[in-house]
């Protein structure tokens, strides 16, 4: 077999030219297209991975937010329950305090009413006792309504301040003498003598019959009233009772 070197050389040159042409106009563009597509694919993969990571981060954030919301919800519920319990306890305590105040006020009112009722009963009893005493004494014999009262009247005058006694002794007008019944001459003389021993002279008397005196003697002067009578005693009893009642209010 004989080799045609010229033909082989030409074919080799043609092959090299074809390879250069393919490399120039086919392989490089195709490689570039492939490289571009690979880069685009990598970019898509990277973007997808980034989106996946972002989605995962969002999912994690959402889960954390849900957890936080659940915790906040529980905290708010607990706070609401605590506030409700505190409000209920406050209302209960306030209601109990108001009930206790009302109970204390009611007890105070009841005690005051009891005291007032007791005072009223005592006052009425005292007035009744005084009325009974007045009625009983008014039935005494007339002699007992004057006899024995002159000395007590003289003693009451003697216990007056000196200036008051001097005014009584220096009076020009007769001393007005309130009596429960008309006096006899002997009774008038005895009363005049008893008063005269205290004043230093026998005064003139102006007897005035006053049944309210009940029993006893009362001297009425310009600046003083001297009593030695049952009316005076009963009036003092009532006054003392009223003073005691006023002090206890």
Walk me through the structure.
With 249 residues, this protein is an alpha+beta fold. The protein folds into 2 domains: 108 residues; 109 residues, hypothetical protein PF0899 fold. Helix content is 74%, strand content 8%. It contains 5 helices and 4 strands; from the N terminus they run αααβαβββα. Strands 2-1-3-4 form a 4-stranded mixed β-sheet. Helix 4 links the parallel strand 1 and strand 2. The longest helix has 134 residues. The radius of gyration is 66 Å and the shape is rod-shaped. This is ATP synthase subunit b. One of its GO terms (cellular component) is plasma membrane.
Short account of what is shown:
With 249 residues, the chain is of the alpha+beta class.
Q: Which CATH architecture of the largest domain is right? A: 2-Layer Sandwich
| Domain unit count | 2
Report the CATH C-level class of the largest domain.
Alpha Beta
Poorly predicted regions are none
Q: How would the global form be characterised? A: rod-shaped
Mean residue pLDDT: 79
- Major β-sheet profile: 4 strands, mixed
Q: What is the SS-derived class?
A: alpha+beta
SS elements, strand count: 4
N-end to C-end Cα span:
160 Å
Q: How are the strands of the biggest sheet laid out side by side?
A: 2-1-3-4
CATH topology of the largest domain: hypothetical protein PF0899 fold
**Order of secondary-structure elements:** HHHEHEEEH
GO cellular component, one term: plasma membrane
Keywords: ATP synthesis, Cell membrane, CF(0), Coiled coil, Hydrogen ion transport, Ion transport, Membrane, Transmembrane, Transmembrane helix, Transport
Organism: Hartmannibacter diazotrophicus
Coiled coil: 38-112
């Amino acid at each position: 077999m004989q080799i045609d070197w010229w033909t082989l050389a030409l074919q080799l040159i043609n092959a090299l030219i074809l390879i250069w042409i393919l490399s120039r106009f086919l392989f490089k563009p195709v490689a570039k297209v492939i490289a571009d597509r690979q880069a685009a694919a990598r970019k898509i993969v990277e973007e997808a991975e980034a989106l996946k990571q972002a989605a995962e981060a969002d999912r994690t954030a959402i889960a954390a937010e849900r957890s936080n919301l659940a915790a906040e919800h529980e905290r708010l519920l607990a706070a609401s329950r605590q506030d409700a319990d505190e409000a209920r306890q406050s209302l209960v305590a306030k209601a109990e305090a108001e009930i206790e105040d009302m109970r204390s006020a009611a007890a105070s009112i009841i005690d005051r009413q009891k005291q007032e009722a007791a005072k009223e009963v005592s006052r009425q009893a005292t007035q009744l006792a005084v009325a009974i005493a007045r009625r009983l004494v008014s039935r005494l014999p007339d002699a007992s309504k004057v006899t024995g009262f002159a000395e007590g009247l003289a003693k009451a005058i003697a216990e007056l301040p000196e200036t008051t006694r001097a005014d009584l002794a220096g009076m020009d007008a007769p001393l007005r003498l309130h009596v429960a019944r008309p006096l006899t001459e002997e009774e008038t003389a005895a009363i005049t003598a008893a008063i005269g021993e205290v004043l230093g002279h026998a005064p003139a008397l102006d007897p005035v019959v006053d049944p309210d005196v009940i029993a006893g003697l009362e001297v009425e002067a310009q600046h003083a009233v001297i009593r030695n009578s049952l009316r005076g005693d009963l009036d003092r009893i009532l006054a003392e009772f009223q003073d005691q009642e006023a002090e206890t209010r």
